[in-house]
Amino acid sequence: MKFYIACIQKLSELVQETSGVENKFLACPTLRVYEASDFDFLTVSQMNAEDRLSTENISMQFNSLSSSKTYWDVDATNSLFDLYKERLENLKLRTQDDVSQGNESAQELLHNKDGSPSEALINYTKTLDEYDQILDEHREFLSEIDVEASEPEELLNSRKWDVLQKQLALFVANWKLNAHKEEIEKALERINKLTDFDSFLALKNTIENRLRNAEITGIKSLSEFSKLQIFPTDFNKSDLSWSSLEITNAEVDTIFKRAQKALKGFNEDLLTFDYNEDFIEKITASYCIITVKRPWLNKNIFDSEFIDGNTKNKTFTYANKILLIKDIRVILKEDLTPKEKKEIDGNSIIKFGPIFMKNQAFINATSKKTFIKAITSKEIYTKAYAPKINKKLAKISSGLILSKPVKKGSLVKHKKAKPILHRQKFATIKQKNSAQKVQIKSTKSRNNPKFFERQMRLKQTKPLQSVQLSQKLQLTAKTLDLKNLMIYNIQKSPKTITSRVHFIIKDQLGENALYKVEISIKDQRTNYFKEVETDQDGQITINLTESNYEITLRKDGFKELTFIESIKKDANKTIGKQLEPHEVFYESYFLVGIIGDQISL
Hints:
The protein starts with a helix and ends with a strand. The relative contact order is 0.14. The longest helix has 34 residues, at 181-214. The strands form five sheets. Strands 1, 2, 3, 4, 5, 6, 9, 10 and 22 form a nine-stranded antiparallel beta sheet that branches. A four-stranded antiparallel beta sheet has the order 8-7-14-13, covered by helices on one side. It folds into three domains: 1-376 and 587-601, no CATH class; 386-493, no CATH class; 498-585, Sandwich (Immunoglobulin-like). The chain has 14 helices and 22 strands. By secondary structure, it is an alpha+beta fold.
């Protein structure tokens, strides 16, 4: 998946240029999807119950800590807010008596018993005023120097400056000998340290109050009582905060090689997982860098001299900035055949890295370029991603897409502590006779639901062979040889009959055809899903097998509509729906990585 990794690398280089070397970019290895509505709480004057839940959810995720130096991910068990609060509560401070030690002798030197200034302090103050006058003479002399002076004048100025410097040194020496300069200044330092200690206690008390108030979400939106603040606050409502990204086929190899060095360790499986992407002309997307601020966070408080003892702390990385992308487009080369383009529209699972793509080839009206784009429904990812769909597909086709010849009895090993989507179990792969027929044995059963994910990450070393199975539905990589391991084609057995389903979507008020309505379709039996969009006539036709489907219709400016539709065998069907106008925006974002700072907790 060179293009996906190249996207991460190019974005990291862009944001690193503006963030400085002290803050490091860390990629996020797993799929994190957010919708524009998740951030509505940023612009409301008073938060309601839903807004309070949203801010708690976003705070939990963006306040996640990473103990890794190579990647960052959402982790509810490592919260910056919780661990910072816990360490602050457990701080062991020096006592006031310890801090004020020697304070009595300092008071005796500086003040008489009646509280009036001592003779030593009076002499020190008088000498300090004289010292200030001498410095004024130096400043006046420097301001009167003519930069265009002649050589004799420059020599004279140099001698005058030497005399002034010696006079200053002599004055300071006499001050130390006759006016108790060092004793007075040490006494003042002891007195001021006690004042600094009081300031430290006041700062600690302020932070603790902010932490307590931040736990009561919604007192004031975006006030000092928030667990975090996000800027710009309107990034989810305006395109002014977004920039364009483009990666062409000609530059992807170069960027990918840089990524293998720069991103080394963040996800070895993704960095080594390769497939042919020559059919891609370029990738385009939009990205936004949002800044995260925390009014309660002052990490320097732990460096204070008033903290007693040295504790063994662990260093974490937290997010100062979050990098989001949207509007992902995979632009296809012009030499794709009509058959290949048709395959994209078929029963396929199309992925760009961890991101699922729509089962539809689009054509740009201006450039006439063919492209595919990402599924943006967070609900689709939540319901159908990873374990659920993998479990169903693994049961249907337990030997699917074996992409690497494996010797008899060998183990498919997996590296510990890497941020992969699912932990894998060791599986023994036994190959019989040829690569066309593969038998899988795992520690549990032939239908190990996690085998699917493992095989999708195996590096391809030779063209894939179709896996012929007797089940009703099977997954192979038989079609589109150039697109092995990016497009997984769902093929039916000869006995499987599909039905043509025709959608007609209109506006409820004017009954006008609605263009670009997102139609998300999920099979309730297998959790297989796909997403398409309506054409300019508000229509689209697809093929579905017999099952019950959960269908969701979405379009900006209209209320989302979800319904269950039963599709019968060999029974073509027309589904007509009308959407109700509603002020809503369905844009979605994918979290790519962060610009982080470190803290010891």
